[in-house]
TrEMBL record:
Pathway: Amino-acid biosynthesis; D-alanine biosynthesis; D-alanine from L-alanine: step 1/1. The gene is alr. Residues 254-381 form the Alanine racemase C-terminal domain. The keyword Isomerase applies. Its EC number is 5.1.1.1. The lineage of its organism: Bacteria, Bacillati, Actinomycetota, Actinomycetes, Kitasatosporales. Keywords: Isomerase, Pyridoxal phosphate. InterPro entries: Ala_racemase, Ala_racemase/Decarboxylase_C, Ala_racemase_C, Ala_racemase_N, Ala_racemase_pyridoxalP-BS, PLP-binding_barrel. Pfam families: Ala_racemase_C, Ala_racemase_N. It catalyses: L-alanine = D-alanine. CDD domains: PLPDE_III_AR. This is Alanine racemase.
Amino acid sequence: MSAMTHTPMRARAEIDLAALRANVRAIRERVQPHSAQVMAVVKADAYGHGAEPCARAALGAGATWLGTATPHEALTLRAAGIEAPLMCWLWTPGGPWREAVEADVDVSVSGMWALREVTAAARQAGRPARVQLKADTGLGRNGCQPADWPELVQQALAAETEGTVRVTGLWSHFACADEPGHPSIAAQLSVFRDMVAYAEKEGVEPEVRHMANSPATLTLPEAHFDLVRTGIAMYGISPSPELGTPADFGLRPVMTLAASVALTKAVPARHGVSYGHHYITPRDTTLGLVPLGYADGIPRHASGRGPVLVGGKVRRAAGRIAMDQFVVDLDGDTVEPGAEAVLFGPGDRGEPTAEDWAEAAGTIAYEIVTRIGTRVPRVYVNR
Ligand SMILES: Cc1ncc(COP(=O)(O)O)c(C=O)c1O
């Protein structure tokens, strides 16, 4: 932790904006040979890092687009005064289409219901909506199936002629980009090229065509097209440990999660620890209480395993992680209350990483950082 953050706090998530900016620059260098732009994906409060400060830092480091899932997330960024090109992709019927059109937010359309709602909103707003058509090239989640694509493209072009829509983008999303060589990757690329070719032949003139998330940005240059949508890499986390470490890609973790040890005490051998007594002290020892729990996003699945750097050593959560707190066995070491317990960070000081917590909880590092709750203050350093 940097010296400037040492106001006593129960816990804090330190967000290193210099690391985020360096990560954006590293991503830009990777995609510049293909002249692709970078969209900073700041959905889910920038994967738990704080949407507005991360959006501003990313733009400052050369990202030219922002991406969110929900329209609410996009409109919140606009309300904060951020004017950069901004796209949001997860719409439901009755969503705030008109607000998005008026705020110059690019909206994603995957089907006819959405095209109908956005054109109606554009008519009310008296200006064209910026619409990006999403193709389902094989993910099987959001997006328009190839069989339905001609109708969607034709209707979008008709709306363009009528002046209610400007088709600004054609885009898709990978299913298995984090598994290089997976046959679905080549298949999706081929379907995407065909769907883009059809739309362009019919008259769509998109500003951007895009498909790559972080793993494709890092490992698949042929998927960069005009724009890459990077989330996790920008936060300095590898999309998957099998692909490499953050350092292998020139990335540095942005979030450090730390707490102030709330209590330390000596306990005898065979003392039960935490709910259910899933940990019994094997000998006379000392215990430390870490004031973070699953209400803060610490995964209960990591009970008995989650690693924490306390008093110069990595200890494991002893027994169950509770709603607000968990215990570590300090092995008889003397640690003062108020000592720093680092759950994860970049790793340079011997602290665990978000990836270590993901492994302990049987999940992915995306989930570890994204779930850190609102009760944990974010402390921004290196603004
Ligand atoms: C549509 C879309 N694009 C891009 C991303 C960013 O993915 P990543 O964090 O792997 O870069 C996401 C995140 O899940 C997404 O849903």
